[in-house]
Amino acid sequence: MYSEKVMDHFMNPRNVGEIEDADGVGQVGNAKCGDIMKMYLKIEDGIIKDAKFKTFGCGAAVATSSMATELIKGKTIKEAEQITNRVVMEALDGLPPVKVHCSVLAEEAIAAALQDYRRRNGLEEDDRYKGCSGCCGGCGSVEMHHGTENDEEAE
Fold first, then answer.
1. CB 56 within 8 A of CB 129
2. CATH at residue 88
3. Are 39 and 82 within one domain?
4. For a disulfide at 142, which of 4, 86, 108, 137, Cβ 3.0-4.6 Å?
């Protein structure tokens, strides 16, 4: 059912614990299964120097957390952003379909910790409307792109 790598990362998880002075911390959870992952990152000069995790959940949740931390250590922030749940699953030689959500949590924990790092360091960029002309109004960018123009035209 589980690969040898999944069993190894469950029985001998890497990077368990907290980083007291973490540069980024992200916590995510899945209400359906009750799994909770918390990831801690130490980042220096744009490189993830250390990553630790605390996970409350099943063996697959522990294994994906462990593998995720192994995959991002030594990576740049941009490289870490490219670590998807599929990458985590492949590194573990697969997961049963019913446990794929654990790899999604690992991806989300990485993203949440990186987002926290960006926020703490003033690196947040609001690119939700990047490339949007605001023409349909569906995304809420009309106010950003046309708010004052439309108000003036209405008068």
1. no
2. 3.90.1010.10
3. yes
4. 137
Which residues constitute the domain of residue 44? 4-120
**The one-letter amino acid at 138:** G
Q: Kindly tell me if the per-residue pLDDT of 146 is higher than 70.
A: no
Assess whether 68 and 137 both reside in one domain. Answer: no
Token representation of residue 146: 């046309």
Is the pLDDT at 118 greater than 50? The verdict is: yes
Average pLDDT over residues 111-119: 95
Residues 102 and 148 in one domain: no
Residue 100 tokens, joined = 């794929």
Residues with a catalytic annotation lie at: 33, 102
Alpha-carbon distance 127 to 131, whole Å?
9
The secondary element (H helix, E strand) that includes residue 44 is strand 36-44
Domains identified in the chain, total number:
2
Are the beta carbons of 89 and 103 closer than 8 angstroms? Answer: yes
Let me know the angle formed at the C-alpha of 81 by 80 and 87, rounded to the nearest 5 degrees. 75
The number of CA neighbours under 13 Å toward the Cβ of 27 is: 7
Mark 109-122 as b/e (b = at least 16 C-beta within 10 Å): bbbbbbebbeeeee
Q: Same domain, yes or no, for 8 and 63?
A: yes
Total residue length of the chain: 155
